[in-house]
Amino acid sequence: MIDRKGQRDILPFAIKTRSLGDVIRRTDQAEGSTTLANGEQVVFNIETISKAGVRVLALPDISIYIGTVTTTNQLPGGSAIDESQWQVIGPWQDLASTDGNNVRTIVYVRNINAGSSVVTLQVKSRLITNRLDVTTA
Amino acid sequence: MSKLRIMSFKDGRKAYSSGGIEIKVNKEEPISVTEINADENQINEFFANAGELEANVVDGKLKLRSVKKKPIQ
């Protein structure tokens, strides 16, 4: 007879799928607007910060409108929009402005020759963090 | 309650943000910033009608006013 060296592993009797709960959260909507004449430009800076100073992962959902906020005025793609009149750079998450505990997103919009127009940016960020005291600032 | 930020620039232009978005126009920072507490629906209405509503602070409260000119009779 051979002595057993350790206890038998406890094997599962049944396996159930468990979700992780509400892991992906969403910030409130933030907005910004200004008026641009031909040749003028605006830079929107969107920063999501962990007030507790812990790691945060944020994915901003962004829409830009020229004039009132309707689908026909969305840049790009709106039926009332001539994209050749606009230049957009970004959005991206700026490496130079983050310490890992914040996410800074930059969007540059330039009015090439659309005439005086109001540019409005709307954003909500989806985020993952293990502390909830996060703010868009 | 949310906050509407009213930014004034050197050339007299204004920019607006909620949620604390920072705005630079033509590479310039605003020369003054006013923050006003307002109902979220009021702020959403302001941005949804961008350029057609004017935001003013009256007695510490946000007042929205149409900037559409009346047609000449």
Can I get a quick summary?
Chain A has 137 residues and is mostly beta strands.
Describe this structure in words.
Chain A is mainly beta and 137 residues long. Chain A contains no helices and nine strands. In chain A, the strands form two sheets. In chain A, strands 1, 2, 4, 5 and 8 form a five-stranded antiparallel beta sheet that branches. A four-stranded antiparallel beta sheet of chain A has the order 6-7-3-9, with no helix packed on it. The N and C termini of chain A lie far apart (71 Å). Chain B is mainly beta. Chain B has one helix at 40-48; strands spanning 2-8, 14-18, 22-25, 32-38, 53-58, 61-66. In chain B, the strands form two sheets. Chain B has a three-stranded antiparallel beta sheet with strand order 2-1-4. The longest helix of chain B is centred in the middle third of the chain and has 9 residues, at 40-48. The mean pLDDT of chain B is 86. The A-B interface holds A 27-36, 40-47, 65, 67-69, 117-118, 120-123, 135-137 and B 2, 13-27, 43-44, 47-52.
